[in-house]
Amino acid sequence: MSLFRPVTHALRVARTPKTFTAYRLPAMKKQDLINYGQKRTSIVSVHRDTKEDNPEIPFEFTAENMERAKEIIAKYPSQYKKAATMPLLDLGQRQLGFTSISLMNYVAKLVDIPPMRVYEVATFYTMYMRHPMGKFNIQCCTTTPCQLRGSDDIMKAIEDFTKVHPGDTTADKLFTFQEVECLGACANGPMMAINDDFYEDLTYDSTIAILEGFKSGNIPKPGPVSGRKTIEPIEGQTTLLGKEPTDMRKFTRSDL
């Protein structure tokens, strides 16, 4: 099933004329279409050995991260330490830069479970990157709320700036670009995540400016770029406009 899912995704994009990426789809053979779909999803569900990712490349936590790993494992009952799989994978990914096959095997040994159980986790959750990544991982949301607010412009801005398509990494290994589903900041769309930080209320120009900051080393402050602090109405406060809060004693029994 997982083999053909990218194909159906690519076909859906190809026959949707208003989709941002539709114009990039030439006539493709079936295998090319499969490769295209797998590349767009940026997710590897079947491991293939490469020189950067194979079981012969050793992995182990640094001394500092091993202490963190021990603290993570200690949070769970000894018979359930397999529950530490996800945070340990995240810790390893932050150390290595991506979730390699050696990292997954290492975590399996730490929590005493078959490696396959770790593979199942790492290939299910999209937060585990199965390719070597750039220094800054750009994830642009194109789900409905963001798309209605102009996520196509944000996608174009990222492509124009990085000169790569979704699923690719720039030649200097600075940026990896991914098109993703909802990141949970729907009220502030369109938005993108760069590593752990959200940038919201974006426009084409503000997206370019943010990426310029990352490239130059002047990393911008995360959050809305429209002047909002959180998700308050952009036009200003619309409720609780009185000078003083309501005195609830006027509406309740005095003996309560």
Label this structure with key terms.
single chain, 256 residues, alpha/beta, Arc Repressor Mutant, subunit A, Glutaredoxin, 5-stranded mixed sheet, 9 helices, globular, disordered N terminus, iron, metal-binding, translocase, NADH dehydrogenase (ubiquinone) activity
Q: What would you say this structure looks like, in words?
A:
There is one protein chain. With 256 residues, the protein is an alpha/beta fold. It folds into three domains: 37 residues; 62 residues, Orthogonal Bundle (Arc Repressor Mutant, subunit A); 89 residues, Glutaredoxin, CATH 3.40.30. Helices cover 38% and strands 8% of the residues. The protein has a five-stranded mixed beta sheet with strand order 2-1-3-4-5, covered by helices on one side. β4, α9 and β5 form a beta-alpha-beta unit. α3 runs antiparallel to α4, α4 packs antiparallel against α5 and α8 packs parallel to α9. The longest helix has 13 residues. It is globular. The N terminus is likely disordered.
Q: What is shown here, in short?
A:
The protein is built from 9 helices and 5 strands, in the order ααααααβααβββαβ.
